[in-house]
Write a structure and sequence with these properties.
Elements (H helix, E strand, L loop, with lengths): L1 H22 L1 H4 L15 H6 L7 E8 L2 E5 L2 H9 L1 H4 L8 H5 L7 E8 L2 E5 L2 H8 L2 H16 L3
Antiparallel strand pairs: 1-2, 3-4
């Protein structure tokens, strides 16, 4: 009986190692899982270059801030890699309006605005409308709340 339990444990250990090596090879090799894709795979440089929200391509990926960023072109990826702070959305891509209410919310990359050279995303059109009523004041509130919520104060 003891030998059967020992054999089962060895087989289970081998199975776990096999899964890690084969089934999750991308993660084991240092690639981020899909949950860590920044702004739902949209190309953050495209907002600045052509004024549109465009989906990126997995072929043009870049790792930054513990997230994988996708870009429509190699040129966009290289621009981001050279200066990510210039192109990355504020608040790690969380909704600017939600932050005025001291909470984090995932965004809709199609609802955005560039203000003073910075990209701000919102979680919905209604959130954008509320935020738009006092953009400078709401950015100030969001900045202060982000310091609290992100632990960067």
């Amino acid at each position: 009986m003891k030998s059967m339990i020992a054999i089962d444990r060895v087989l289970m250990s081998c199975s776990c190692i096999l899964l890690l090596v084969t089934g999750f090879g991308g993660i084991a090799a240092g690639q981020s899982p899909a949950a860590d894709v920044a702004i739902k795979g949209y190309d953050t440089v495209a907002y600045f270059k052509i004024g549109k929200a465009l989906k990126g391509n997995e072929s043009f990926a870049f790792q930054w801030h513990d997230m994988t960023w996708y870009f429509e072109t190699k040129e966009n990826r290289d621009l981001f890699a050279a200066s990510p702070e210039k192109y990355a959305p504020q608040y790690d891509g969380y909704c600017v309006w939600a932050l005025t209410e001291e909470r984090k919310a995932k965004t809709d990359p199609e609802v955005w605005k560039i203000v003073d050279g910075k990209l701000y995303l919102n979680c919905s059109k209604s959130a954008y409308e509320k935020w738009s009523k006092d953009i400078p004041g709401n950015i100030k509130k969001a900045d202060a709340n982000w310091l609290k919520l992100s632990g960067k104060n």
